Amino acid sequence: MISWRKHYKRGLIAIGLLLSTSASIYAQGDAKNGEKLFKANCTACHALDKQMVGPALGGVVDRLKKEQNLDTDWLHKWIKDNKALRASGDKYANEVYEKFNKTEMPAFPALSDQDIDDILEYTTNPPAPEPAADAAATAGTDSMAALEAANKESANSKIILISLFAIGGLLLWLLFKLRQLVKLQQSEELAGLNETRATSFADMYKRYHYVGKGILVVLGVLAAYGIWNWMMWIGVYKGYKPEQPIYFSHKIHAGENKIDCQLCHSSAKYGKVSEIPSMNVCMNCHRTISEYNGKYMEPGKDKAFYDGEIKKIYAATGWDPEKQQYTGKTQPVEWTRIHNMPDFVYFNHSQHVVAGEQAIINSFNKKNPDAKIDVVCKACHGQIDTMNVVQMANDFTMGWCIECHRTTEVDMNNGYNKEYFKNLHEKLKKQYGSGTKITVDAIGGLECGKCHY
After folding, report:
1. 400, 345 in Cβ contact below 8 A?
2. Which residue ranges make up each domain of the chain?
């Protein structure tokens, strides 16, 4: 009996030591610092609560201990140089590599042991968010906004009421004046005057036919001008911004995240047409970005809205974010084209982006000192990095193009122009002098055949 009690007590002590050892794993690091390190180094491939490119890391320390009987030393080796760990013949390291499609995790030799402990502490005991202050501030802001809206509505109601009283008073005053005019019309003093006045349209036209003909001529000219002006603006859609099947904010991508235009529209530099990027281009980033965590929110939009649009990308490409693999079931996206030149107009993007890039930027900035641009795309497409919904920023008429060709100075230091227009450049210098500015129209920019088939 005594022996049994001794063993019982020893068992309890052993369990206590085991639990204390296990608990110490969770108390080796700083979770707040670990959160910063995790977001800086790990979020491209990992999340705490779901599988992405790599496995979910929430509770990874405890899970690894239970399933593989591996401690944090193994995790240190894996994080610092997983390739070396696999090369050493570590069985579980190679299993993980095979399981996740042989996607090699980057090595992090710069992370210290304490940094890794902080990250592991964050994955085990992530610090609770502190929404109270934000919620209170939001509630306060909403309350103030509601109060301001109520005050504004009350003020508007008063203005409407006063306006109605004013209109009513004006109508009464007009009625009073009309009664006075009627009485005056019935007086004997105006009887003789009424006999000399025209009582029909025919009499009026007979007396004032010259004035009438003049008015008709003016009206005819105005009508002709109106028709001509209307016809000249057929096909001009400045400000056109259709709703797209998947919401895409250029302000978030090009503005907030500083993504270069040509990363997505690569053919603008090398081809005639700047094509709509394929959904595979979107997936280059959104394969690992499954939710929106940016600070910028367009008025009327929230995180749930942006997350829903990302899910549309997954549906279109047939991507399963849970299994991190393609299903093969794709859905075509019917984008609405915004910029579309007529069939009889030839326009080459690469010619402007490569040969004319610096010339166009310099010309635009010279003419618009208060709205300078840093990329050539903005000269035609406007401040695209500020647009939530892309719209046609310019007229894109023939006159608009010709004006640009007449005022844009050719950059003869450009390697393409320097070689291609070498002889023409020398000829123009001899003809107009070495200091003469050469604009696009001087190198054939106004020839009909340059732009029309």
Report:
1. no
2. 2-124, 349-382+395-451
